[in-house]
From TrEMBL, chains A, B:
Transmembrane segments: none annotated. GO terms for cellular component: cytosol. One of its GO terms (molecular function) is zinc ion binding. This is Transcriptional repressor. InterPro entries: FUR, Fur_C, WH-like_DNA-bd_sf, WH_DNA-bd_sf. Belongs to the Fur family. Coiled coil: none annotated. Pfam families: FUR. It is found in: Cytoplasm. The keyword Zinc applies. Keywords: Cytoplasm, DNA-binding, Iron, Metal-binding, Repressor, Transcription, Transcription regulation, Zinc. Its cofactor is Zn(2+); Mn(2+); Fe(2+).
Length: 136, 136
DNA sequence: CGCTTACTGGGAATGATTCTCATGAGCGAT
DNA sequence: ATCGCTCATGAGAATCATTCCCAGTAAGCG
C-alpha cells in the first residue's frame, strides 16, 4: 500500500497537500492539479494520499458525508499521536495534544474490560478569521 | 428529513435496530428485514434510520470506510450528549459520559479562538467477550 | 546502458447513498 | 365510517467516491 519510489507524481501530490493548511479530499487535490495543468491520474492521487497517511506523514479525517480528507502533518507532530481542531468553514486545522482525553479513554476502556484500545477525537468549530466573515 | 407518520415500515426498522446492541449499517438492516420476509424498500430503511438519528433516538458513527452505522440509543441516554466505546469485532457498544473530554474540548477551542464548537469522540477496542475468542 | 520491478493512468467496476415519481397509506376533518 | 389532502413508500435510475484492472512507462540498480 505504501508507494515508495520518488516519482514526479509523488512530488506534485505532496506539494499540493502542503500548499494548504486544511483538510482536502482526493477529488479536490486531483481537480487542483489538473487545473494547474499537471498530467496525473485520479488513481495516482488516491494512491499517494493513502500512502502518506499510512506513513504518518499525513492525517485523515472523514467528513460529515464520510468522504476522506487529508492534511499534510505539521513538522512538529509527524508520527506523534495528536488530534485536530478544524474550522468547518475554511478547513484550517490546528494540531492539538489530547492529554486529558488519552487518560480518560484508557480509564474508560479498562472500566468496561475492553482491550486493544484506539480512538478518534476531532474538534470542529469556526476559526477567528471566519468568525468575522460569517453572519449570525 | 424527519419522517413522522406511524407506518408499519417505521416499526420494523425501529425493531430491527433495537434487536441488536451494536452499530449496524442501513444495508445490514435492509438485508435482515428482507431475509426475515418483510417487504420494504432500501430507500425507506435509509429514510427511517436518518430520521431516528435526526431525532436523537439513534446514534450514527461512520466506520473506517466512511460507511454510516446506526444504533438505537439506550433509554437512559436518549437526547443526552454522550459517546461510545465500540467493540471493533462484534460491534457491541457501551454508552459513556465524556466529562473530562467536554472540558478539554471547550478549553482547547477557547485557546485557539474557535467558536460554535462541536466534536466527535469514539472509542474502539475489543470487548471482554471477543477477547477470549480472538487469537494474538 | 539494459533489466527488473514498481508506478502510472484511463476506463470499467463497485458499492453506498440519493433522487425521481407514480402508487399507497396515515390521519384529521366531515 | 368515509373523504381527501398530504406525506410515505419503493423500484429503478442516477450520483459519486473509491477501487480494480492492466497494458504502457519510468525509477533505481548493477
Ligand atoms: Mn496532524
Ligand atoms: Mn447512544
Ligand atoms: Zn476558518
Ligand atoms: Zn465484541
Amino acid at each position: 500500500m505504501a508507494v515508495t519510489r520518488a516519482t514526479a507524481q509523488q512530488s506534485i501530490v505532496r506539494d499540493a497537500l502542503q500548499a494548504h493548511d486544511g483538510f482536502r479530499s482526493a477529488q479536490d487535490v486531483f481537480a487542483d492539479l489538473r487545473a494547474a495543468g499537471h498530467r496525473i491520474g485520479l488513481s495516482t492521487v488516491y494512491r499517494h494520499l493513502q500512502s502518506f497517511a499510512a506513513q504518518g506523514i499525513a492525517d485523515v479525517i472523514h467528513d460529515g458525508d464520510g468522504e476522506a480528507t487529508y492534511r499534510y502533518c505539521g513538522e512538529s507532530h509527524v508520527g506523534e499521536h495528536h488530534h485536530h481542531l478544524v474550522c468547518r468553514h475554511c478547513g484550517r486545522a490546528e494540531e492539538v495534544e489530547g492529554g486529558p482525553v488519552e487518560r480518560w479513554a484508557a480509564q474508560t476502556a479498562r472500566r468496561f474490560g475492553y482491550v486493544e484500545l484506539d480512538h478518534t477525537v476531532e474538534l470542529f468549530g469556526v476559526c477567528g478569521n471566519c468568525r468575522s466573515y460569517l453572519p449570525s
